[in-house]
C-alpha cells in the first residue's frame, strides 16, 4: 500500500469508508474468524496508523468489526503454533501486536471504538487503545491471555485497562479472565454507553460529529494533554503542559474563527492552520 490518504487506501482485511466529511469508519473484516488478529491484519492496522498519522483530512475514526464480533483477539491458529516456535518467533509476534496497540493509542485524531460483539485479548486491547468506547448489548469483554496459560499482562492491557476502569476492576478482570457483558462493562466504565446494535455506528458517528466540530489543532492538543497528564508527576507538571498548549492553540488561524463562531452561534469553517 503506497497511498498517503485514508480515502484512497486499499486493504485486504479492513474496510474503510468516509461516513461524512473527515469522519471515517474502519471495519475489521474477517467475520468468519470474529475478526481475529493474524500477521496480515496486524500489518494492515500498522499501515492504517501510518496513513492516519499523516493525513490531515481525517478528523475522527470510528473502529468496529464486521459480522457478529468486534475482535476475538489473536487468531487461534497463531496461538496454537506458539508452543512449537522459538523464543525469538514468539517475541516477534508479541512486539508486532504491542507496537500496533501503542501506535493506535498515540494517533493524533480521536478514535471511537464501536464494539459490536466479543472483544477479547488483543481485541480488548484494541478497544482500550481508542479514546472512547460504545458497546452494543451483544458486546462481551475479557482478558483472554490468562486463560491460555499466559500472563494477563499483554499488548498493553496492563497499562490501558487500569486507566480506564481503575486498578480494582482491572485486577479482577486480569486475574480471572472472566467474560463480562455490556451491562457490566458500562457499570465499571469500560464503555461510555450501551446502544442498540442498529444504532451503534450511528451513535459513534454522532459523537464523532461533536468532536469534529472543534478545530483540528484543538482536538490534537486536547488528546495529547489527556494522554500525557493522566500520568503527570504533579499538578504543576500537568498545568505547565496545559499552559503551553493553550498558548500554542491561541496563535492558530482557527482560534479566532472558533471564538467568532461561538459568539455568533454559527458553524465555524476551520482552515486546519
Can you walk through the features of this model?
The chain is of the alpha/beta class. It folds into two domains: 6-212, 2-enoyl-CoA Hydratase, Chain A, domain 1, CATH 3.90.226; 216-264. 47% of the residues lie in helices and 14% in strands. The chain has eleven helices and nine strands. The strands form two sheets. A six-stranded mixed β-sheet has the order 1-2-3-4-6-9, sandwiched between helices. A hairpin with a 2-residue loop joins strand 1 and strand 2. The two termini are 28 Å apart.
What's the count of strands?
9
Task: Note poorly predicted spans.
Answer: none
Largest sheet: 6 strands, mixed
Shape: globular
- In total, the number of domains comes to 2
What is the level-2 CATH architecture name of the largest domain?
Alpha-Beta Complex
What's the helix-strand series?
EEHEHHEEHEEHHEHEHHHH
**Structure annotation, total helices:** 11
The chain-level structural class is alpha/beta
For CATH, the homologous superfamily of the largest domain is named as 2-enoyl-CoA Hydratase, Chain A, domain 1
| Rg over C-alpha atoms, rounded to the nearest angstrom | 19 Å
Distance separating the two termini: 28 Å
**CATH top-level class of the largest domain:** Alpha Beta
Q: Residue share in helices?
A: 40-55%
The overall pLDDT, averaged over residues, is: 93
Output the CATH topology of the largest domain: 2-enoyl-CoA Hydratase, Chain A, domain 1
Strand content: 5-15%
Amino acid at each position: 500500500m503506497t497511498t498517503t490518504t485514508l480515502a484512497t487506501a486499499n486493504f485486504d482485511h479492513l474496510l474503510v469508508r468516509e461516513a461524512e466529511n473527515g469522519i471515517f469508519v474502519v471495519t475489521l473484516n474477517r467475520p468468519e474468524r470474529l475478526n481475529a488478529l493474524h500477521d496480515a491484519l496486524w500489518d494492515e492496522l500498522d499501515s492504517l496508523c501510518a496513513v492516519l498519522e499523516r493525513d490531515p483530512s481525517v478528523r475522527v475514526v470510528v473502529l468496529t468489526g464486521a459480522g457478529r464480533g468486534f475482535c476475538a483477539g489473536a487468531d487461534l491458529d497463531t496461538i496454537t503454533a506458539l508452543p512449537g516456535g522459538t523464543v525469538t518467533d514468539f517475541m516477534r509476534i508479541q512486539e508486532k501486536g504491542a507496537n500496533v496497540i501503542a501506535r493506535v493509542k498515540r494517533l493524533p485524531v480521536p478514535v471511537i471504538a464501536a464494539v459490536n460483539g466479543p472483544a477479547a485479548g488483543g481485541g480488548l486491547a484494541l478497544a482500550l487503545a481508542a479514546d472512547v468506547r460504545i458497546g452494543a448489548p451483544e458486546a462481551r469483554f475479557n482478558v483472554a491471555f490468562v486463560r491460555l496459560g499466559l500472563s494477563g499482562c499483554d499488548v498493553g492491557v496492563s497499562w490501558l485497562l487500569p486507566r480506564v476502569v481503575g486498578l480494582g476492576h482491572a485486577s479482577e478482570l486480569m486475574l480471572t479472565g472472566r467474560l463480562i457483558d455490556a451491562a457490566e462493562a458500562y457499570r465499571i466504565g469500560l464503555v461510555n454507553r450501551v446502544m442498540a446494535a442498529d444504532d451503534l455506528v450511528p451513535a459513534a458517528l454522532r459523537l464523532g460529529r461533536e468532536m469534529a466540530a472543534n478545530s483540528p489543532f484543538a482536538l490534537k492538543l486536547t488528546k495529547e494533554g489527556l494522554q500525557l497528564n493522566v500520568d503527570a508527576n504533579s499538578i504543576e507538571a500537568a498545568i505547565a503542559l496545559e499552559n503551553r498548549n493553550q498558548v500554542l492553540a491561541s496563535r492558530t488561524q482557527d482560534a479566532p474563527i472558533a471564538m467568532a463562531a461561538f459568539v455568533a452561534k454559527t458553524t465555524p469553517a476551520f482552515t486546519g492552520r
